[in-house]
Write a structure and sequence with these properties.
By secondary structure, this protein is of the alpha+beta class. The chain contains two helices and four strands. Strand 1 and strand 2 form a beta hairpin.
Amino acid sequence: MTRTIVASATREIIIGFDQPFCVIGERINPTGRKKLAAEMVAGNFETVIKDALEQAACGATMLD
């Protein structure tokens, strides 16, 4: 069976048909979000941090 492994410095997620469902939060991805992209370029990550924490609290397994 095909599996995809996504890893960070602190965690490893295995995605596959025989694995628990994986919720991927995508609100911190600046693609299509001009205001968020501009904030990030300016070094302001407040919105990214707020969105990331909110997605994790709502059950996101990983963030994109």
